Amino acid sequence: MASLPHLKSPDFPDMIAASHTALVVIDIQTDFAAPEGLLGRVGVDLSEAHAAIDQCEKLVAAARKAGATVALLRVVTTPETDSRALRTLYARRGRPGEQAICRSDDGGADYYRIFPEPGDIEISKLLYSGFRGTDFEAQLRARGIDTLVICGLSTDCCVDSTSRDAFHLDFDVFVVSDACAAYEPGLHDSSLDAMEKNCVLLVTTADVEAAWS
Questions:
Q1: Which residues form the Isochorismatase-like domain (predicted)?
Q2: Which of 73, 152, 176, 186 is the right S-S partner for 130, CB 3.0 to 4.6 Å?
């Protein structure tokens, strides 16, 4: 990550001024991060996720203090809402049923460590992008927001999908590199590298804290 190009500009505080910026916190929830959640129960190493959440907590505190909008996104599913394409994908991989994650009725979709407060935007989604099948864009536009600072889980999936869709919708997108994580070695850095080359600027938690201080 240290070798990836990060934005260093004296104008950065103006770029993410609280009046027109939202901190977007993606999928910090039980099944993706808690030891008792689905990934924890099947033995996935959550250490990188927890390190990223530590940074996300700092960002949320800084955003709230500065008056920036905080948007919390999470996956909320039922068997009835499971995507046909996703079911087919996993079945063809020989792992039918593996897509059953973040269920609304068993606690898997619950927020973990970071919780909404009055005035926050809350978005429930079925798959990866926070914009697909939601009113997220409309809520951002209604608040005059044109810039997103994105963090959360996982770098290669929901962070990537949401960041690309935001860019396609004409938002300015910053991804906080040390406040995101992936579950497999190499995926985090390679995903950041691909996004930085195409649609986002990379920054660090310390950069954002300083800009919002």
A1: 21-207
A2: 73
Helix segments in 67-169, DSSP class H: 84-92, 136-142, 160-168
Helix axes 160-168, 187-198, angle to 10 degrees: 10
Q: Where are the domains of the chain?
A: 13-211
- Which residues are identified as catalytic? 27, 125, 158
Handedness of CA 65, 70, 75, 78 (dihedral sign): positive
Euclidean distance between CA atoms 70 and 25, whole angstroms: 8
- Token pair listed for 103: 């269920």
pLDDT digits 0-9 by tens, 137-167: 999 999 999 999 999 999 999 999 999 999 9
DSSP 31-70: HHH-TTSHHHHTT---HHHHHHHHHHHHHHHHHHHHT-EE
Residues 6+ apart with CB under 8 A from 94: none
What are 48-71's pLDDT values in tens digits?
999 999 999 999 999 999 999 999
% helix, strand, coil for the chain, step of 5 = 40, 20, 40
